[in-house]
């Protein structure tokens, strides 16, 4: 149950981090959303299943995703947690609002009926472990300020997209429709510049801009890692241990 709750918090905010005694803003905001949802529904948290907890998280955010984003906006810049330093480089409130609006208005029912596909598995935890290392590396660079802000932002972008590809591949193996939904959700939450530099696309961006597209396309989005590789070599000059 503990691992599934961790997975839930990170999934909703698109961040996977090492759990420490101090909660990140991601954990704070998500925990409050879940607690409020369960309290209002009168659920017994001791008996709730991982599936129900995950569903409750999405439903609580969809009920008031503007409030969820306001929680981030108010607290994120005040935090020195590694996950939050990473998120500060890539968080865009308008884009995250668009991601949740797309998921909540287009695909929430599909998630409810296939929620088992989002539960934590060994393959997902491998994605998280690799992403966690990337978060710590970028957060350390952010704290040291050795690289220009644009370079740090692009590093955070590529680390995030690499994780999303890993994670959505696992979801797709469980159910292709859920894999596509989560891909659209993750990529819609990225800043426009990040989607442009990596070449990823989201159906939600097109829908909310008035362009109709099918749920499952015939082509597979290809992630461009060239910039990520180049930035790795640039970072080696300043911090050789970070990317080995």
From TrEMBL:
Could you say which residues form the signal peptide?
1-22
UniProt keyword terms in alphabetical order? Signal
What protein name is recorded for this chain? DUF19 domain-containing protein
Organism placement in taxonomy = Eukaryota, Metazoa, Spiralia, Lophotrochozoa, Mollusca
The gene behind this protein is: ORF86430
